[in-house]
Amino acid sequence: MTKKVLIIATSPRKNGNSNRLAEEFANGAKEAGNSAEIVYLYDKQINFCKGCLACQKTHHCVIKDDANQIVEKMKNSDVIVWATPIYYYEMSGQMKTMIDRSNPLFSDDYSFRDIYLLATAADSGDYSMDGAIKGLQGWIDCFEKTALKGVVKGLGLEGVGAIEGKNALKEAFELGKSIN
What we know:
With 180 residues, this protein is of the alpha/beta class. It is 33% helix and 19% strand. The chain has a five-stranded parallel sheet, with helices on both faces. Strand 4, helix 5 and strand 5 form a beta-alpha-beta unit. Helix 1 packs parallel to helix 6 (167-177). It is globular.
């Protein structure tokens, strides 16, 4: 069965290393016969959640910006992949803001089940992504039908393009290819 894969690339940089992981994951998912779409947040207008909780009744956010369209794509996807650079041992602010803005999905009938994380960091320690994984797991725990299915860690990557030729790109491709 073909799965609909949505990759949310949260890097503020147009050609960031985590965006490259997103592209390779998408290539692998497509090779496996799935549809894959990447939404890049660097050119989107996404405001902070106001905490009004109106979305719990209406299933739509009252804020009129690009997040509403992304949340609709999330709702109708089978797989959601988050790609983020790691800042101060945590997910990017853009990723956290988009996670917060996905609140309309909490009380809605969403399709996604499998969640993946693709992350890149300048730090080379395996622990570098622990904060981001924990933060994402908190979001996943709020959606009882979902689970974290895989993580790709691109470590020791200083500067745009540092990921080229690294094993993390192959890992992202293979993880995307494993979706069935």
